[in-house]
Amino acid sequence: MAEITCIEDLRLLARQRVPRMFYDYVDGGSWTESTYRANEADFQRIRFRQRVARDITLRSTATQMLGQTVSMPVAIAPTGLTGMQHADGEILAARAAKAFGIPFTLSTMSICSIEAVVEATRHPFWFQLYVTRDRSFMEDLIERARQARCSALVVTMDLQVFGQRHKDKKNGLSIPPSPTLRNLVNMASKPRWCLNMLRTRNRQFGNIVGHAKGVDNIASLVDWTREQFDPRLSWQDVEWIKARWGGKLIVKGILDPEDARLAVQAGADAIVVSNHGGRQLDGAPSSIAALPAIVEAVGRHTEVHLDGGIRSGQDVLKAMALGARGTYIGRAMMYGLGAMGQPGVATALEIIRNELDLSMAFCGKTDIRDVDGGILFR
Questions:
Q1: Is residue 1 part of a domain?
Q2: Which residue among the candidates 86, 276, 301, 305 is catalytic per the annotation?
Q3: Does the reported pTM lie above 0.90?
Q4: Where in the sequence is the domain holding 111, given as residue range(s)?
Q5: Cβ contacts of 219 within 8 Å, gap of 6 or more
Q6: What's the CATH number where 241 sits?
Q7: Phi, psi at residue 366, to the nearest 5°?
Q8: What is the pLDDT of residues 17-27, one digit of tens each?
């Protein structure tokens, strides 16, 4: 295997090792994928201001996100079907995050359950909550997250309806997955993936099956999923969740300054500027393009984080320069996981930290907490 030097190397390796239906689930967006592409492309248009003849001997990428000390301003984003990129994927990613000293966020739509992850890691993590019509199920999820000592709850706001993702439709990928004959043949061509999946008991949506009313198996999950995502989601729901949770609350899926202000009013301790990785409204702005106006609107009142398009430490540095207090990686983590399991996630994190550290040094900075717009070329 060739030496891994960047996130793109991990992506190419994951494409070889992960069944097509699950790889395409990660590596794609909705409709024309214009927003998915813009998330990366708009980062590339931002240029650094290089400085020289400065003492850059002692450098630190450590900071805080939501009061938690982190080795760099990066958290692992909540991603559905993580356990289908690699067996026990959520557990492996959580372990890698713990070892690296950054937050891990578990999705409601994870394969491994809250309980399975906490048992395997013995370490607090963040939990992402979708708003469903079944409020008793939501209350149960919140209580399970509390029992697991989750240190923050992330409420995703931009999945009231599903954006159409052409690759998923063509691959027959639904929730739960319904593999076609072509996909079964493709899975058989990935022996490493198949062997790992045979070794684990975590093959269904662990936070839902056996917990939601009437959902006792994968078959019954189909109707439940179709009915439960709530198009009536409102800011009052966020206030309701905040009251029942009582802890740190992160609101994810904000692209508009007015929505950012409403999130703060509803009790958000942090907001995440995000377009769901370009998987929802195609034609929406990239996350990095939307960031400055949102920082200006609410940055003095709450932490502003960014998700979408982070493929390098340089992207992290640019987001911090434009006012973000933290960033999230989804695809970069999934590529590492699909490529090599937990070591692949660790490799992705090390690549990002190394790029962040060196780029910060080239800009004449030694502490990530001192980074601001002055490092950007105007």
A1: no
A2: 276
A3: yes
A4: 7-375
A5: none
A6: 3.20.20.70
A7: -120, -10
A8: 999 999 999 99
